[in-house]
Structure formats: C-alpha cells, structure tokens
C-alpha cells in the first residue's frame, strides 16, 4: 500500500466537493445509529424471551436499552444538589423534650407518643 500525502488526498476530496469534517461527523452518526440498532434488537429479543405481558412492558424494555445503572458517586452527587425550595426546609424530630418549644400540641398527642416533627425554613443556598 502506498503512502498517500494528506494534503493531496484532502485536495482530491475538495475537488469532489467533500469535506473531511462532514465525512467524520456522518461516520460518527452512522456508528451511533448502528450501535443503537443492535442494542434495541438485543432488548427486543430479551423482552420476547421474558414473555412480557403487555406491549407497554415490551416498549419500556426497548426504550430503556441504552440506560445503565447509576454509580454510587452519581447518586450521592445527585442528592447533594440544590433541587428547589425543599432543601431550605430543615426538619428535626424532637423526642428528647416534649413538647418542643414553639410547638403547640392541639392534637391528641400524649407524652407517651412524643413523635413531633417541627420544620423551620432556613436561608436557601442561592
């Protein structure tokens, strides 16, 4: 096989009105499409082998063919993120003193069941 000068081959492609970047992106897209096709096919075969009861179950298995389990670090990172106003709400379970200061007990709670949860708002982290 002969060594082909890169500049010469690119000029030949340009003379054919072809772009190397466009060819690379088309190839990457085709490879992703092919990988997706085979993952879907494997998922379909698994679903048929499992004898799913409904088409919705079958479709769910096929649609989730590219999903992967979350890693522990990903789960931990997701729980640490600010997710709206809820992180600004700090709840504490008071079992040591009954009733906790600032909480009125107008329900049927008794000292035998001192499970009162009080919630206060803190400054949101933004």
Automatic annotation (TrEMBL):
Gene Ontology CC entries for this record: extracellular region; outer dynein arm
Gene Ontology BP terms: determination of left/right symmetry; epithelial cilium movement involved in extracellular fluid movement; inner dynein arm assembly
Protein name: Dynein attachment factor N-terminal domain-containing protein
Domain of life: Eukaryota
Organism: Mesocestoides corti (Flatworm)
Domain Dynein attachment factor N-terminal, residue spans: 19-85
Record-linked InterPro entries: CC103, Dynein_attach_N
Compositional bias (Low complexity): 104-115
Residue numbers spanned by region Disordered: 97-117
